[in-house]
Design goal:
This protein is of the alpha+beta class and about 600 residues long. It folds into three domains: about 150 residues, Creatinase/prolidase N-terminal domain (Creatine Amidinohydrolase, Chain A, domain 1, 3-Layer(aba) Sandwich); about 140 residues, Creatine Amidinohydrolase, Chain A, domain 1 (3-Layer(aba) Sandwich), CATH 3.40.350.10; about 300 residues, Creatinase/methionine aminopeptidase superfamily (Creatine Amidinohydrolase). Helices cover about 35% and strands about 20% of the residues. The protein has 18 helices and 27 strands. It has a six-stranded mixed β-sheet with strand order 4-3-2-1-5-6, with helices on both faces. Strands 12-11-10-8-13-14 form a six-stranded mixed β-sheet. InterPro entries: Creatin/AminoP/Spt16_N, Creatinase/aminopeptidase-like, Creatinase_N, Pept_M24, Pept_M24B, Peptidase_M24_C, X-Pro_aminopeptidase_P.
Length: about 600
């Protein structure tokens, strides 16, 4: 009999901790590659607690000295969602970074407690910081050899057996051999013998392969080591490498069973080996230490070149955006006709949007679970609809839809906020929507010198909200992959990270980012306007030195119903009109009939 309730699962975990003589355990959303989105087999936090967000952790104490002995730690994006999905009788709600998990464990665990963690799911930095905090509080951090959740999760899925496949070089713009040669040159320049690459998107980019092992992210569960002589070892489960993939990689890439990865480190004894402390789990560093390797902490050498898109990748994104824009426009036309009748709900809207994408050609997957938020559900920035939370798109309300597609030539991500009629939006909604729009335009039109980090631009998008005493609790922009992760680093546009503010990556020509300011009124509605942009070189008459700016790639009408024209400057109105003229010119060939007529009307000058 499988455990159906989260209370039973929590109880089973505590019994397993007792068998292992552990007093507590930490459960992150993570896999052995520190992925943002993980395969079904690694969804341990969701199974244990019911939480469906993409970022968060839980801590469980077997016999607490205070409180429930279990807590959920999430950031501001999930404040509402965690309360809707996780039973408050079982788990306390904690807000990151205000609440410290280490402090909570010290306060709630008995003196001398042994707190377990899985070293294949955490970074070395996390483990060191947690060990220091627990030791100071009279507790001990213990690395487990196997995860106790796996011992009690009776119907835990197996890792995906799907085969890897090639990413066509005409989409990649560079060969795998060229990328591996660049990494080898870097290794030799740094006097390193090898580098361990464990981030799934970095492995995929380096080898020009993709996979179907993680929902919405086309990667294959595997590890890669690259040596200074240009050869590489790819650790992947047997049977997942078709002949055409092996032939394309050639003899310079040795294909080895995935379960040999840790054992293979023995060959690094006495060698200088690079590993990324932010993208490699603690267990990798532990194993390198054990075999006597000299560990050099370096950023994964695939990260920056992966972020700077080739001309082929940029052209691929434009083509993907055109198809995707046609699909989203068809959806918005359909929505305007159907939703005011009160017959559309969040699930049916998301399904219809996916159907339009599937008809547009070559959709391989969604790039993430569609955020289909009606009314108050839209106030949760990373809301994910299910049967229990599903709401009707009520007449005279705000609907937020954030969605994207995975195509072989590009990854899309777009948010549109729509007024569901037949009535008119309130003055407050028009004000908030227009302030978000003004921030979006300010960022889209900004020029900046090389060397500028995204954190230096973040306030541009928030300024008009700030003037009204308003803000939003998420970043303004994230990097985007090329038929890879919809969230990709190292570039970002967000508030400075405290003491780490100086480490923010400078924005460079060829980088893809989102532009997505928003506003959220808890219990009522959410607003977000998101387009993808690419950093490009920008010529300014009379300028001194080099300058950069953004080309907007996403081309879909923005709802004019909620725009307060009186709050816009002439320059902002000019941007709106120019943008919608480009939308009309680009997307019109994708449409016909009523959808085309709807586009023409939606794109008329403001």
């Amino acid at each position: 009999m499988l455990m159906q309730t989260h209370e039973a699962r929590l109880s089973a975990l505590r019994e397993e901790l007792a068998r292992r003589e552990l007093d507590g355990f930490v459960i992150p959303i993570s896999d052995e590659h520190l992925s943002e989105y993980v395969g079904a087999y690694a969804q341990r936090l969701a199974w244990l607690t019911g939480f469906g967000g993409s970022a968060g952790s839980a801590a469980v104490i077997r016999k607490p000295v205070k409180g429930t002995g279990a807590a959920m730690f999430v950031d501001g994006r999930y404040t509402l969602q965690v309360r809707e999905q996780v039973d408050g009788k079982l788990y306390e709600y904690k807000s990151v970074p205000t609440d410290s998990m280490g402090d909570w464990l010290v306060e709630c665990a008995p003196q001398g407690a042994r707190i377990g963690f899985d070293p294949w799911l955490h970074t070395r930095g996390w483990a060191e910081q947690m060990k220091t905090r627990l030791t100071k509080g009279g507790a001990e951090l213990v690395a487990v050899e196997s995860n106790p959740l796996d011992a009690v999760w009776e119907d835990q899925p197996q890792p995906s057996p799907a085969p890897a496949f090639l990413q066509d070089e005409r989409h990649a713009g560079r060969s795998s051999a060229d990328k591996r040669a660049e990494i080898a040159d870097w290794l030799k320049a740094e006097k390193l013998d090898a580098v361990v690459i464990s981030a799934l998107d970095s492995v995929a980019w380096t080898l020009n392969i993709r996979g179907k092992d993680v929902d919405h992210t086309p990667v294959a569960l595997s590890y890669l080591t690259v040596q200074a002589d240009g050869t590489a070892d790819w650790f992947i489960a047997p049977g997942k490498v078709p002949d055409d993939v092996a032939q394309a990689l050639g003899n310079a890439v040795r294909i080895r069973p995935r379960d040999e990865f840790s054992e293979a480190f023995a060959a690094f004894a006495g060698k200088r080996v690079a590993a990324d402390p932010d993208r490699s789990v603690a267990a990798i560093f532990e194993r390198l230490d054990e075999v006597g390797a000299q560990i050099v902490s370096e950023t994964d050498p695939a990260v920056l070149p992966k972020a700077i898109k080739t001309e082929a990748e940029q052209q691929g994104h434009r083509a993907a955006q055109k198809r995707d824009g046609g699909a989203v426009t068809r959806f918005l036309h359909w929505l305007e006709g159907e939703a005011p009748g009160g017959t559309v709900d969040e699930l049916s809207a998301a399904a219809r949007l996916q159907a339009f994408r599937e008809k547009c050609g070559d959709l391989r997957d969604l790039s993430f679970d569609t955020i289909s938020g009606a009314g108050p559900n839209g106030a949760s920035p990373h809301y994910r609809v299910n049967e229990e939370t599903n709401r009707t798109l009520e007449p005279n309300s705000v609907y937020l839809v954030d969605s994207g597609g995975q195509y072989p030539d590009g990854t899309t991500d777009i948010t549109r906020t729509v007024w569901i009629g037949p009535g008119e939006p309130s003055a407050e909604i028009r004000d908030r929507f227009t302030r978000v729009l003004k921030g979006h335009i300010a960022l889209a039109t900004q020029t900046f010198p090389p060397g500028t980090p995204g954190s230096a631009l973040d306030a541009l998008a928030r300024q008009f909200l700030w003037m009204a005493g308003l803000d939003y609790a998420h970043g303004t922009g994230h990097g985007v992959g090329s038929f890879l992760g919809v969230h990709e680093g190292p570039q970002r546009i967000a508030k400075p990270r405290g003491s780490q503010a100086g480490t923010d990556q400078e924005l460079m020509a060829g980088m893809l980012l989102s532009n997505e300011p928003g506003y959220y009124k808890a219990g009522e509605y959410g607003i977000r306007i998101e387009n993808l942009v690419v950093v490009e070189e920008r010529h300014i008459e009379g300028a001194e030195g080099d300058w950069l700016g953004f080309e907007t790639l996403t081309l879909v009408p923005i709802d004019r119903t909620m725009v307060d024209r009186e709050l816009l400057t002439e320059a902002e109105i000019g941007w709106w009109n120019d943008y919608h003229a480009q939308v009309r010119e680009t997307i019109a060939p994708e449409l016909d009939g009523e959808a085309l007529a709807w586009l023409e009307n939606a794109c008329r000058p403001l």
